[in-house]
């Protein structure tokens, strides 16, 4: 007996076309010449630097790459953020970039629903931990 199954077609990006490379604190993803833009940079917050952010196929390519035992990027030094955290460390809410808060020592600046309050609260926590560590040595 034959069965007829109707399915909606699923569009998938061919993962084998994507190449992932570690560069500094980022994953450089080449999605192949058929994809525009071809080159993407995914941070440790699982967010791409392109307009798609979290939903970029480059993020999935990095996940697949790590699952297959790919090399992980270096962990940044304590308190330094190469990219903004995906959620606020204080209220766990979503963050947005704020380049006015970015600095060489602190890394990427961000804001949450509190505005800049939680950013500075978090920086104060980092300073306190750093100071404690310095006193112990
Ligand atoms: Zn992207
Ligand atoms: Zn917050």
Which helices and strands occur, and which strands form pairs?
Layout: E1 19-23, E2 26-30, E3 39-42, H1 57-67, E4 96-97, E5 110-111, H2 117-136
Antiparallel strand pairs: 1-2, 2-3, 4-5
The structure holds zinc ion (ZN) (2 copies).
Fold and architecture overview:
- The protein starts with 18 loop residues before the first strand and ends with a helix.
- The strands form 2 sheets. Strands 1-2-3 form a 3-stranded antiparallel beta sheet, with helices on one face. The protein has a two-stranded antiparallel sheet with strand order 4-5.
- The protein is built from 2 helices and 5 strands; from the N terminus they run βββαββα.
- The protein has 2 domains: 15-67, no CATH class; 77-137, no CATH class.
- It has 137 residues and is α+β, with helices and mostly antiparallel strands.
- The structure holds zinc ion (ZN) (2 copies).
- The radius of gyration over CA amounts to 19 Å
> Fraction of residues in helices?
10-25%
Question: If you average the pLDDT, what whole number results?
Answer: 89
Q: Beta-strand level of the residues, as a percent range? A: 5-15%
Shape: globular
Instruction: Tell me the span between the first and last alpha carbons.
Output: 77 Å
Number of helical runs? 2
Secondary structure class reads alpha+beta
Q: In what order do the strands lie side by side in the largest sheet? A: 1-2-3
N-to-C SSE string, H for helix and E for strand: EEEHEEH
User: What is the tally of beta strands?
Assistant: 5
Bound molecules: zinc ion
Task: Report the biggest beta sheet as strand number plus sense, adding barrel if it closes.
Answer: 3 strands, antiparallel
> Uncertain runs with pLDDT below 50, 5 residues or more?
none
Number of structural domains: 2
